């Protein structure tokens, strides 16, 4: 248990029938009249839904102990993804539902942060960007410029994104894992 006066960004709270909510931002408000209160923006840990919630100052809220560990993606076992704890070398299986769109940017050996609660994986955080090789894209045509349009390109993970017309098969590019956008070429 913690008081609403002790809230911090990133803290995970157990509210509404044991649902887990992460504190995105909070603000203590002391109006001229009436009691102080805490205005928060909370993000549902599993669904990603963001809500605004107000608490009276000093009210007790239940916190959840979420363990974030650095892990390395080892291999895919059927539908599941197997990650290895970098400290203990224990392996855990994570379902595609928990991984979500992050599965599009995972290669064997990639490192990620896995959030665990009571021994079960909640979500996986990848670095903001990853470097991947273009497995296939249509060849560029003379006159294609960097300010032109985009064309589809299949990454080495099998996922398809839009890249500038001048990018060719075999090039290594940087991809934003949050949006799936092309960020630039990587010089080898």
Automatic annotation (TrEMBL):
<dbReference type="InterPro" id="IPR014722">
    <property type="entry name" value="Rib_uL2_dom2"/>
</dbReference>
<dbReference type="InterPro" id="IPR008991">
    <property type="entry name" value="Translation_prot_SH3-like_sf"/>
</dbReference>
<dbReference type="InterPro" id="IPR013185">
    <property type="entry name" value="Transl_elong_KOW-like"/>
</dbReference>
<feature type="domain" description="Elongation factor P C-terminal">
    <location>
        <begin position="130"/>
        <end position="185"/>
    </location>
</feature>
<dbReference type="InterPro" id="IPR015365">
    <property type="entry name" value="Elong-fact-P_C"/>
</dbReference>
<keyword id="KW-0251">Elongation factor</keyword>
<keyword id="KW-0648">Protein biosynthesis</keyword>
<dbReference type="Pfam" id="PF01132">
    <property type="entry name" value="EFP"/>
</dbReference>
<dbReference type="InterPro" id="IPR012340">
    <property type="entry name" value="NA-bd_OB-fold"/>
</dbReference>
<protein>
    <recommendedName>
        <fullName>Elongation factor P</fullName>
    </recommendedName>
</protein>
<dbReference type="InterPro" id="IPR011768">
    <property type="entry name" value="Transl_elongation_fac_P"/>
</dbReference>
<keyword id="KW-0963">Cytoplasm</keyword>
<dbReference type="InterPro" id="IPR020599">
    <property type="entry name" value="Transl_elong_fac_P/YeiP"/>
</dbReference>
<comment type="pathway">
    <text>Protein biosynthesis; polypeptide chain elongation.</text>
</comment>
<comment type="function">
    <text>Involved in peptide bond synthesis. Stimulates efficient translation and peptide-bond synthesis on native or reconstituted 70S ribosomes in vitro. Probably functions indirectly by altering the affinity of the ribosome for aminoacyl-tRNA, thus increasing their reactivity as acceptors for peptidyl transferase.</text>
</comment>
<dbReference type="Pfam" id="PF09285">
    <property type="entry name" value="Elong-fact-P_C"/>
</dbReference>
<dbReference type="Pfam" id="PF08207">
    <property type="entry name" value="EFP_N"/>
</dbReference>
<dbReference type="GO" id="GO:0003746">
    <property type="term" value="F:translation elongation factor activity"/>
</dbReference>
<feature type="domain" description="Translation elongation factor P/YeiP central">
    <location>
        <begin position="68"/>
        <end position="122"/>
    </location>
</feature>
<comment type="similarity">
    <text>Belongs to the elongation factor P family.</text>
</comment>
<dbReference type="InterPro" id="IPR001059">
    <property type="entry name" value="Transl_elong_P/YeiP_cen"/>
</dbReference>
<dbReference type="InterPro" id="IPR013852">
    <property type="entry name" value="Transl_elong_P/YeiP_CS"/>
</dbReference>
